[in-house]
Amino acid sequence: MTFSSRALRALSALLLLAPIPLAAQQAPIAVAPVASASAQPRYAQPDDPWIYRGTDIPVDKEWLFGELPNGVRYAVRRNGVPPGQVSMRIRIDAGSLHENASEQGFAHLIEHLVFRESKYLKNAEAIPHFQRLGASLGNDTNAITSPTQTVYQLDLPNAQGPVLDESVRLFAGMIREPKLSAANLAAEVPIVLAERRERNGPERRIAEATREVLFAGQRLSERNPIGQVETLQAATSQAVQAFHQRWYRPDKTVVVIVGDADPMRLAALVEENFGDWQAPGEPTPDPDFGVPAAPAGADPANPVGETRVLVEPGQPRSLTYAVMRPWHQVTDNIEYNRGLLIDSIAEAIVNRRLETAARAGGSYLYAGVENEKTSRSADATYVSVAPLTSDWQAALTDVRAVIADAIAMPPSQAEIDRELSEYDVIFANMVEQRRIQAGSKLADDIVNAVDIREAVAAPETILEVFRSMRDRFTPEAVHEHTRDLFEGVVVRSLYLTPETGEADAAGLRNAMLAKVDGNGNERASAEAISFADLPPIGEPVAPSVRGPLGVFDSTYIDDVEGLAFPNGVRVLLWPTANEPGRATVRVRFGGGLQAFKPEEGAYVQLGQLALVGSGQGSLGQNELELLAAGRKFSFDFRIEEGSFVFEGLTRAEDVADQLYLFASKLASPRWDAAPVERAKASMLLSYGTYGGNPNGVINRDLEWLLNDRDPRYATPDAAMLQTTTPEGFKEVWSRMLAQGPIEVDVFGDFKRDEVVEALSRTFGALPPREAVAPEMLANTPGFPAANKDPVILTHRGEPDQAAAVIAWPTGGGSAGLPESRKLEVLAELFSNRLMDEMRERAGASYSPYVGSSWPLDVPSGGRILALAQLPPEQVQAFFNAADEIAKDLAANGPTADEIARVKEPKLQLLNRIQTGHTFWLSQLSGSAFDPNRRQYLGSLMRDYTEVTPEELRALAARYFGNYSGWRLAVLPEKEASAAGR
């Protein structure tokens, strides 16, 4: 049963490959639609669904399952979130673990080939065809290869009638009969190699070393989904076809379709398009993935196995060890899942204790424990530690001491109850939001359940199972499960360090073998804290102005309400009924980046990391978490060009307390030093990683360079950070919290009168605000001058990696909102052209991108930016291609088909996302003080979808015609040195 407690914890990034968007060329397509499927499904299983066989988990009746005689299994379901969309998933039960040694990378390569050409779709027709139907590349049309599966994804908006029928037919043809020709291999292998090249560097080496150590002797240790250069270059049409025939079979296929359609029709479509699929030969058994095993002579009480020290200059120190157990196919029943829930509580308690110790200052920046069943290869408990200094032994000892205490002594019932309250909120909220679950998420849940060989459960079942076993969460039971989490057949570890000679495998082994005494000092306090015990913000004050804004026609939908308080605070309220259990509170205040002096630049990022954790009033970070126990809160903070933003995702019963938290932060901020020092340590440890590859250098320096080297946009280095202090942090951020206007936006599921009363007690009770100095509001940076010869930066990574950027200044400010939307369309057109040019140029670049940004709070700072990662020898080709595209768009504009390929996905996206309150919040946020945002809301759809070729040509001429672009190249150090740069 796929319980949310596990779904919320992602598998280690070191072990799985992220979803990979696929390449495509532009080409027209003319495929005749087929008749709509009208036959009733013959092989549906309403009474004996295949995914529930052998389990006592109650069947989720909203699903319809079926199994065809050829072995294809399916799951279909009606879902109208978002309206009109159908989400399709085709899962092949084969990933990189199914590859022979000479086939490494074939599973992922076939992903690309499937989208290249297939039975009904000619070369490079697939992506343009689905774009014209409204699907966007990467978001809606994608594929994933993991060690154990390959999954093809299509989220098709407005998939009704013949469009749905034809799309299922085309998608089935892609999977069943891709054209695995030599010509298609010649086109796709270089693109896959470009993708591999761009993923090369320290991160890949660390991931590979981690797999090799933790899964030593198992297939997973040597099977990376991206594959090997040698096997990919040696791939032949016959070899790839053999892999496809071996694993792309009906008995290895699960089809999932969820959408705004009759489930019987969806089932009939699956049967129609997959029922006649026959695979030659007998099924091939899965290879033996192997099991973890202890080395000969290991101590059964402490079975330490493989250890390794990996030296990667510039990388922060980290230590990972894993308690490994064999993976077994489980009987996925309710009792098994009860055990998993107790495991989760045990794990949460240990993690809270580790975090408490890290916050107090000590030998490690962070540490965590996670139990996962990884790739059907191991049931493992992973322990990760980030030492603060070269004394990694002390960090390891301190973490092991916290774990040793948890193994030795039961937790308190208060600790258990605290974690249970968190889970109860999560599971109850799942039930509240059941009817608004997105169809794509439901489809993914089925795929994930099949991958881990488990069933699925309705949210009501999960909540009922959890609440019915509350008496089983005793200190004794949690203690038993804690001990089990840290027992295994072998313990393996890897230490990553930037310094040669700092450690060796023998030393790491000795440290793992060393006995540690339990440390119970970090047992987290669980004494309850109540909002009722907290001091008031001030005397409650009612709003002085209140009324509808005229955003919506209130005949059909409640309008957005505007409030103003005597102290200057303004509010937007929009209660909605279509998203039960979801409400968002957003607070915009102050002057944002403009309000900092240039010499205060280092405090910008420190504030991003440390401001929330530094506490408020009498509450430090630990006390704030106690206060939030059993509630649905969040406290996100971000810095924008012209404002600061607090944001919390909450629910109706907790909106008032969420408002108190935000108002209290402004009224009585606390200035604990430990979060500031911890943030500094984190920034110091991570700074060296930026220089390890082109992407890191861009993340470090691009915003600083594009803002004319303004220090407020710089990533602080060690010298800058050494000048900062907790006292300086307080001085800078106390000014930021006290200045500038406040706008509070509450959108979603809440009770209007209760929230107005809560606002009166919180933001209405604040004293009047200081104004931001006018000279600071004019403190906006310029844009660098155009340059024929690019700025050159270097990285110390792989010699075949480089990056190139070209940017053109545009504008800013809410008065230009319609133009900013049209520039987004222009940038997407540009991106499509650049992708064709660079990806198809022998794999010159896997991921070229063009985007447009237009800040609304300030009158400048916008830009269109083109970026690509590519080999050094292709940098000039990128600049040439970008120049040619810019000049052509300025002279001739785009074609109608190019606009259609951008317009339709944008139209469908807008239709989908406007059903949720967060879309309208994003559009209206800031409009309490800025009427332009309301004024131009009515033209939003037109601006994106009715833009003409001539309008786009004029915009291109305006921004590309008089400015040749600012250029940046990031080259490997040796390449730059050889060129004398």
From TrEMBL:
The keyword Zinc applies. Residues 236-420, 730-904 form the Peptidase M16 C-terminal domain. It comes from the Bacteria. Residues 85-200 form the Peptidase M16 N-terminal domain. It holds the Pfam family Peptidase_M16_C. Keywords: Hydrolase, Metalloprotease, Protease, Signal, Zinc. Residues 1-23 form the signal peptide. Coiled coil: none annotated. Belongs to the peptidase M16 family. This is Insulinase family protein. The lineage of its organism: Bacteria, Pseudomonadati, Pseudomonadota, Alphaproteobacteria, Sphingomonadales.
